[in-house]
Automatic annotation (TrEMBL), chain A:
GO terms for molecular function: oxidoreductase activity, acting on NAD(P)H. Residues 4-298 form the FAD/NAD(P)-binding domain. Transmembrane segments: none annotated. SUPFAM superfamilies: FAD/NAD(P)-binding domain, FAD/NAD-linked reductases, dimerisation (C-terminal) domain. Its cofactor is FAD. The lineage of its organism: Bacteria, Pseudomonadati, Pseudomonadota, Alphaproteobacteria, Rhodobacterales. Residues 317-392 form the Reductase C-terminal domain. This is FAD-dependent oxidoreductase. Keywords: FAD, Flavoprotein, Oxidoreductase. GO terms for cellular component: cytoplasm.
TrEMBL record, chain B:
It comes from Thalassovita mangrovi. This is 2Fe-2S iron-sulfur cluster binding domain-containing protein. Keywords: 2Fe-2S, Iron, Iron-sulfur, Metal-binding. One of its GO terms (biological process) is P450-containing electron transport chain. The keyword Iron-sulfur applies. It holds the Pfam family Fer2. GO terms for cellular component: cytosol. Belongs to the adrenodoxin/putidaredoxin family.
Length: 409, 104
């Protein structure tokens, strides 16, 4: 009998396979992975994996896990087509798999630069284990690196390379780092941290070309030419939605799903980086690229596919390690109209509480793990402590206020 | 190699041989111990590698602030013997230790 077929064995697909068994699903599970490496954690690729030559990939689940749980992992196999009428998936090797439920967990791929020189040897992107190995392997002898784009992955890599004694310049087109992913206050604190690590941060600069004879030698900006032995392009990611398009599913900034993560075909679902889902609250479609989003959506869908329909509605959270700085974000800053900032004893920014129409909607913290964990609980409970309490940035006082508010609620 | 025992959420006891120098979380997930999803991959953020130290031949090294804060405000109540195993290194001093998985 046909069971669940999952395309993509990243954070979302792997958690879904595990979650189905946790939920008691007893049918077949086929987990198809275009990536030839055993399923691994992606966040360390721009963090600890770059630090040491011999740092291994970190498995999402041990190989024995897949065997124990009777999950058929098809490594290095690309799904090439979906036949919705026959309810089958075709693989690159010609095999055809029938499905009762099909799940697209295909993630994102690096957005490509289209400038002159974008394909010179020495120009790297960083999304997969093989990207990370190629980058790490190219580092010996490299003295100068230019990172194009001031997003999380590029900034983490910049901090890591600076820590290895490499001269790093970040070139960002926008007037500040991190775009809409973080507030201006946090973006500035991150820029200061990078500068303290020795990274040169250029914002509001446009890259005109990557130059070099046979391999990269420089990055030409409007204003100056930056010498470079290696270039990392980190200008964002685009959803992998080709299979969904070819199968005529609704696609708009990712594969469009409803609150139960079903696409426009009720037998096909999508989750994680590639899915555009209705935001709990306002129902507007959005797409998030984070481990939390992929794994929590996988948990919800595992329950649904195991017979317990579950709408997705978790509070989003995210983290980034930029050198020694731990940035954590709970909630979505988008709609906020008021920000309360707190500072540590050293005068440095510690947290930003974002409110929309007086309600807490997001909290950014820097090296303040307790406040972050607490923020997730405040947001889950929909509780907004008084402004003067938030302004203390004192986790113990905020916790007391939260306990008061939930006790009386 | 250091012998560590885990008690999985369903009560199963499993002893593993862990290589020194890695984190207890990595040793556990590498051996397929149930209940530790280690969502953040060891960044001391998600608290899904939370375990209780049931037995340890020697005291474990003290927690750092980040681990303490993350545990203190996590939703699975922190106990006196709580640890985030991504922050505990496998060393010969752990030989014979027993961890109960709280996990997630
Ligand atoms: C370097 C790096 C650092 C990151 N750091 C952080 C961080 O600190 N915090 C955070 O929250 N998030 C971070 N992220 C983002 C996080 O890794 C993603 O949000 C998460 O991996 C999304 O999970 P997913 O399952 O949707 O997609 P992925 O994990 O990307 O998995 C998708 C998989 O689908 C496979 N696939 C695609 N098409 C096919 C096909 N046709 N057939 C078969 N297989 C296919 C791909 O090979 C891939 O393995 C980082 C990402 C990267 C790349």
């Amino acid at each position: 009998m046909a069971g669940v077929v999952i395309i993509g064995a990243g954070h979302g697909g792997t958690q879904l396979a595990a979650g189905l068994r946790d939920e008691g699903y007893a049918g077949t599970i086929d987990l198809i992975s275009a990536d030839p490496d055993h399923p691994y954690h992606k966040p360390p690729l721009s963090k600890s994996f770059m630090k040491a030559e011999d740092a291994p990939l970190q498995p999402l689940r041990a190989p024995v896990f897949f065997a124990d749980k009777d999950i058929r992992l098809h490594l290095g196999q690309t799904a090439t087509g979906i036949d919705r009428a026959a309810k089958t998936v075709t693989l690159a090797d010609g095999a055809t798999l029938p499905y009762a439920a099909l799940v697209l967990a295909t993630g994102t791929e690096a957005r490509r630069l289209t400038l002159p020189g974008h394909d010179l040897p020495g120009v790297h992107t960083l999304r997969t284990a093989s990207d990370a190995r190629a980058l790490r392997g190219a580092l010996p002898g490299v003295a100068r690196v230019v990172v194009i784009g001031g997003g999380f992955i590029g900034l983490e890599a910049a901090a890591m390379l600076a820590g290895r004694g490499i001269a790093v310049t970040v070139a960002e087109l926008a007037p500040r780092l991190l775009g809409r992913a973080a507030s201006a206050e946090v973006a500035q604190a991150v820029a200061h941290e990078l500068e303290a690590l020795g990274v040169r941060v250029l914002t509001g600069v446009s890259v005109e070309a990557i130059e070099g004879e046979g391999r990269v030698a420089a990055v030409r900006l409007g204003t100056e030419v930056l010498a470079a032995d290696l270039v990392i392009v980190g200008i964002g990611a685009v959803p992998v939605d080709g299979l969904a398009r070819a199968a005529d599913l609704t696609v708009e900034n990712g594969v469009v799903v409803d609150a139960h993560l079903a696409t426009s075909d009720p037998h096909i679902f999508a989750l994680g980086d590639c899915a555009s889902f209705p935001a709990p609250g306002n129902g507007r479609h959005m797409r998030l690229e984070s481990v939390q989003n992929a794994t929590d959506q996988a948990r919800a869908l595992a329950a649904t596919l195991a017979g317990k329909p579950t709408a997705y509605g978790a509070v989003p959270w995210f983290w980034s390690d930029i050198g020694p700085m731990k940035l954590q974000i709970a909630g979505l800053i988008g709609a906020a109209d008021e920000a309360i900032t707190t500072h540590g004893a050293d005068g440095r920014l510690k947290s930003v509480y974002h409110l929309a129409a007086g309600r807490l909607v997001a909290v950014e913290t820097l090296n303040s793990a307790g406040e972050h964990m607490l923020a997730r609980r405040l947001l889950t409970d929909g509780v907004t402590p008084p402004r003067d309490v938030l302004a203390t940035g004192d986790a113990a006082r905020i916790k007391a206020a939260w306990q008061d508010l939930t006790a009386t609620a | 190699m250091t012998k560590i025992t885990f008690i999985e959420p369903n009560g199963t006891r499993r002893e593993i041989e862990a290589a020194d120098g890695q984190s207890v979380m990595l040793a556990a997930t590498g051996a397929g111990i149930d209940g530790i999803s280690a969502e953040c991959g060891g960044s001391c953020i998600c608290a899904t590698c939370h375990c209780l130290v049931i037995d340890a031949p020697q005291d474990l090294p003290e927690m750092e602030d980040t681990e303490r804060d993350t545990l203190e405000f996590t939703s699975d109540a922190m106990q006196d013997n709580s640890r985030l195993t991504c922050q505990v290194e496998v060393t010969p001093a752990l030989d014979g230790a027993v961890f109960q998985v709280v996990g997630h």
